[in-house]
Amino acid sequence: MILLGIETSCDETSAAIVEDGTRVLSSIVASQADLHAKWGGVVPEVASRLHVERVLPVITEAMEAAAVGSASVQAIAVTNRPGLIGALVVGVACAKALAFAWRVPLLGVHHIVGHLYAPLLSEPTFGFPFLCLVVSGGHTELILASGHGSFCTLGRTRDDAAGECFDKCARLLGLPYPGGPEMERVARDGDPGAVAFPRAWLGDSLDFSFSGLKTAVARFIETDGGRTPTADVAASLQAAIVEVLVNKALLAAERTGVCRVALGGGVAANKTLAREFADACQRKGLRYVVPPVELCTDNAAMIAAAAHHRATAGEDDGLAIDTVATDYLPLCPSVAAGRSK
Ligand code: KG4
Ligand code: ZN
Questions:
Q1: What is the model's pLDDT at position 341?
Q2: Which is deepest, 3, 78, 226, 302, by most CB within 10 Å?
Q3: Considering only CA atoms, which of 115, 56, 54, 102 is closest in space to residue 75?
Q4: What is residue 209's three-state secondary structure?
């Protein structure tokens, strides 16, 4: 079965053609990062306008690259929640128009569920159940994926996401946006033990917290007066983030007894994180996947893959599907109950 995936929840306009849920025939991503850089972060209004300009050319490019015409597309999958409202609306409106014109089912996909399918796209034999640590600019979530459509958030950040912490601290250090990749580059020449930044363990919780770390970095920069090399600060910050992420992922594996673990989201591009995650998994005898960067960062292939089982079951959300614009949308209501955000 051939699906067209569309993703416009934040600052990447993406379309992909995926066959049978695992074969990526094409995946096109038009990133807006350079255009948002001058403001030091994503400007929602600018993101929406750029999606409007780019969404149809990107879909056309994806179909041409896959040599797939409209008559071959059997369903359309689109991210409809959560995300920036103006950005989501562009992808969803476009998907509705195409589904109507081509007379194919339309499936709305939860963005984080899309991220959970990146490990399965990169390693189709990985299989359920698995744990996935989704770490991006907007999310830090530890999720148990038990089967198609069966997901449970075991832990999530109580304040800033890990990528947000990288980005905000990079800004404090005078590094350009997006700060994560730049922080990693600068950290390469630094000593990770130079500054003892705090690790928020939060007792035995599987939740995360990175806002205290950001404050600690701000205070350190203020009081240090530039004596410590930026590389040492960057390496120490990176070490603090990576240590917490890797330890909590392993703790979740130990608690659940699940022996397959994966990384996802843009922060998974960080080589220190990927290496320490892989080393820790090997030490514990866990099977692991760190998908290639192009599948970790926002892309429409993961959205199409996430909808495949629903499309094959004959499901159709119809043209009335709505967008849900919120920074956090629970995957499992029971665990989300009582949370403040
Ligand atoms: O998943 P993503 O592309 O977009 C969303 O936020 O959904 O993730 C972007 C985040 C940014 O915060 C960026 O700084 C971070 O991922 N990032 C990195 C690296 N590459 C991207 N953080 C640390 N090291 C990297 N190499
Ligand atoms: Zn994402």
A1: 34
A2: 302
A3: 102
A4: coil
Place of tokens 């049978």: 20
Q: Could you tell me which residues are beta bridge partners of residue 76?
A: 4, 106
Which residues are near ligand 1 (CB < 6 Å)?
10, 136-138, 163, 166-167, 178-181, 184, 265-267, 269-270, 297-298
Q: Measuring CA to CA, which residue among 156, 159, 136 is closest to residue 144?
A: 156
Q: Are 183 and 232 in contact (CB under 8 A)?
A: no
pTM of the model as a whole: 0.92
323: three-class secondary structure by DSSP: coil
Task: Return mean pLDDT, the chain.
Answer: 93
| Residue whose CB lies within 8 A of the most ligand 1 atoms, among 297, 327, 328, for a mutation test | 297
Residue 162 in contact with residue 135, Cβ under 8 Å? yes
Element (H, E) at 69: none
In a 13 Å sphere around the CA of 184, the CA atoms on its Cβ side amount to: 15
Q: What is the DSSP letter of 314?
A: T
Q: Are 239 and 106 in contact (CB under 8 A)?
A: no
Residues 166, 299 contacting (CB under 8 angstroms): no
Ligand 2 centre and the CA of 326: distance in Å? 13
Reduce the DSSP state of residue 284 to 3 states and report it.
Answer: helix
What confidence tier does 340 reach under pLDDT thresholds 50, 70, 90?
A: very low
Model confidence pLDDT, tens digit, residues 207-218? 999 999 999 999
- Which among 157, 238, 267 is the best mutation to test ligand 1's pocket, defined by most ligand atoms within 8 Å of the CB? 267
Q: What is the DSSP string of 248-260?
A: HHHHHHHHH---E
What are 138-177's pLDDT values in tens digits? 889 999 999 999 999 999 999 999 999 999 999 999 998 8
Residues in the chain: 341
DSSP label of 266: G
